[in-house]
Amino acid sequence: MIREYKPEDLNSVMTIWLQGNLQAHDFIDPEFFKQNYDLVKMLIPMSTLYVQDLGGIKGFIGLTENYISGLFVDQNYRHQGVGEALVNKAKQRHNELLVHVYKKNTAAIDFYVAQNFDIVSESINEETNEPELLMRCHVEHNVKIGKCAL
């Protein structure tokens, strides 16, 4: 079940955040994520968060308006549709989604391409000095228009 984030979810979300970053970004010094842990913990509640709750938090997506500020899935629940469900939740709320992905994180790039994201540009992340891609998905919402009698 995907639901809105609650304050009591914070520790589970942060555990998934740290483990996910350490696993997906082995090209970045692990100390970078450990040093940013407290800052992220403070900022998380300022984003719009949705969690996949399957008798415990198995993944989450953080949104700052239409920008995906984070998408993380517990390693034991990857490749089971959790990430796709979370992205679809975001797609229900926005006409366009944007996300930055490290160029070396090919699994994430492949995931977003499968979710109909396109690569828009490439830049260097100022904090890590690593190349990253800006990806965008245009979302078409089907709106049913009823017939009106004049």
TrEMBL record:
Transmembrane segments: none annotated. Signal peptide: none annotated. CDD domains: NAT_SF (cd04301). Pfam families: Acetyltransf_7. Keywords: Acyltransferase, Transferase. SUPFAM superfamilies: Acyl-CoA N-acyltransferases (Nat). One of its GO terms (molecular function) is acyltransferase activity, transferring groups other than amino-acyl groups. Residues 1-140 form the N-acetyltransferase domain. This is Putative acetyltransferase.
